[in-house]
Amino acid sequence: MITWIRNGKVVDPVKETVEERDLIIEGGKIRHILPWGTFEGRSDDVETLDASGKLVLPGLVDMHTHLREPGYEYKETIASGSRAGAAGGFTALACMPNTDPPNDSRSVTEFILEQAERADLVQIYPIAAISVGQKGERLTEFGDLREAGAVGVSDDGQPVRNSELMRRAMEYARFHGLAIISHCEDLFLSEGGVMHEGEVSTRIGLPGIPAASEEVVVYREICLARLTGCPVHIAHVSTAESVSLIRRAKEAGLPVTAETAPHYFSLDHSAVIGYDTNAKVNPPLRTPMDVEAIREGLADGTIDVIATDHAPHSPLEKEVEFDKAAFGMIGLQTALPLTLALVKDGVLTLPQAIRKMTWNPAGILKIEAGRIAEGNKADLAIVDPDEEYILSGEDILSKSKNSPFVGRRMRGRVELTMVGGRVVWKRSLPDRWAGR
Amino acid sequence: MKGFHHKDLLGMGQLSVEDIELILDTAESLKEISHRDIKKVPTLRGKSIINFFYEPSTRTRTSFEVAAKRLSADTLSLSASTSSMVKGETLIDTARNLQAMNPDVIVLRHSSSGAPHLLASVMEAGVINAGDGINEHPTQALLDMFTIREKKGRIRGLEIAIIGDIAHSRVARSNIIGLTKMGAQVTVSGPPTMIPMDIESMGVKVEYDPKKAVEGKDVVMVLRIQLERQSKLLFPTLREYAQFFGLNKAIVERANKDVIVMHPGPMNRGVEIDSPVADGPYSVILDQVANGVAIRMAILYLLIGGAKSDHVD
Questions:
Q1: What is the pTM of this model?
Q2: CATH 3.40.50.1370 for the B138-289 domain, yes or no
Q3: A422-426 vs A409-419, strand pairing mode
Q4: Number of CB atoms found within 10 A of residue A431's CB
Q5: Is A309 a catalytic residue?
Q6: Rounded to a whole number, what is the distance in angstroms from the first to the last CA of chain A?
Q7: Complex-level ipTM
């Protein structure tokens, strides 16, 4: 059986092109990429997908997702997160280790991969913990974790305070070919804080998290990269000074990469006004000046990756007093429309934007994904870039609905997602869209 | 139409200049009731008011209780230890349960900033913020403004210093919003560890040293130092705080001759305020307490007295 995706505009994030191409998919792989109107297949053995007026993107790769399983299945499961990911155009998700138990051993990594196989939707790539129990004391067994299927190690959720431990982790991770992803936060500086420390926190009386709590650790990781020569990836960059530190590190040729999340280039700290716990996230939403700097960092290549930091929480953790609410927001189904808004604003070209959600994260994690090319696995998404809609809770396939973007206008919707030639998400029009 | 069109009193930010003047004027006319032989009028007869104090409080709680009783409302008091919150009930569930009993007003004191806003979002009853975390304490600010107006005849154009832990003070935040709105010039003072970032954006001046901050001031407001802040590295010792930031006679004398000194209570004598100042001729601290009752009577009356007005919240 052959699948023919016809009349779409295919985005190549490596050549940075958007071309009028048909895709011929066979045996789960992309067999041919042909100009429109040149394919002559026998019609009895061909399934045709019409992509007229649509973009055909490489399947998106999220290198920073919280799938909550094992331990917090009431917030999200690998299956529900996979569905949300597929609906958001993602074909690969790297899931963070702060589960219960944390992913600090082969048995947890294998469990995650088994659950992913049961869900059988998108590719799941476990990120393991840097330290046993995420306690910041002893390194986990990086080699064994790598063999079990982990693609990286991270302290996300439980930042490494001990700089010596971080240094050794970087050296050891490189030997095993694991990406090392740092959540940069000085826990002493941020302690008790619930939003960005600045004009808004002062005005609405909430304890602040200073920008410096991120920046001092970003600088620590840069110093350690210089010391050891080992690569390090900075997670969820949120401040202007972090961007400029990373920019200078890259100019100096240090092996530092960085990601940000869509909320850091879409919202500022004023979103917290009214004590909206869905706008409570760590690192916190910063100032408009920081938002501008993040956009500049994306535009000039300082920030390599757009990741979601999808962090599902149930109403039990969100419909409470602001200081008692959990940090985090979901993002799998909003990442692409928010990134397309950057294209519309002229911050990035379309291929540049897509590269930060495909080729770049795939390269950092060293996974085979991120590009539509002949012979590659047929992981892709068909997207209507122009459709406008108000995001509603019903649209969200994640188990949790904690998003400050619910009720906001979005532009760009995923029509279909394919993993290995198999359709894992296809948008069927809900009633309220009928007759449009 | 002149009137008070709010369901809740959550903070000073929601009040217009006209709202504030209406509250102060109403308090002025109600104050006299507390000086009668029979200190009670039937205005709020049949109304029920729940005082829900999740944090300990003597002054504010008693003040609301007295105010409600003088207006003949029925009052009920809940504290964290006697409520289901110790049994793990969420604030929203507690609110829904209280709403089921159909009270007219809930007065809430809570340790979390924004808790009254959350409560108000799920309750039909009016919610009065009696202090939320480090955010606001609007009735305190209103009684302070009432006291200032009573003593000085006006608020507009006055020079006012607020000294203490501005960052963690809901009294300071409410007063800053209210006083600047009413046209006073506010200067905040205290150790740099206690002055929040970008406070100038709220329209105030910063002068860390109280000796300089009080110069030319008509009103000096001293904030209570919370002793547990010492462990948060905000100041080294109470002794040193008193030495550099405590309001003593020598400092007060640098202010205007007819200065008034205020404190929201309870005082740490010898720490943020010296006894000769607290008990001195410029002190209006006990007037503040008396006026607190009048202000709370006014707010209760405006929120639930008479015909229901159209809320525009």
A1: 0.93
A2: yes
A3: antiparallel
A4: 6
A5: yes
A6: 33
A7: 0.91
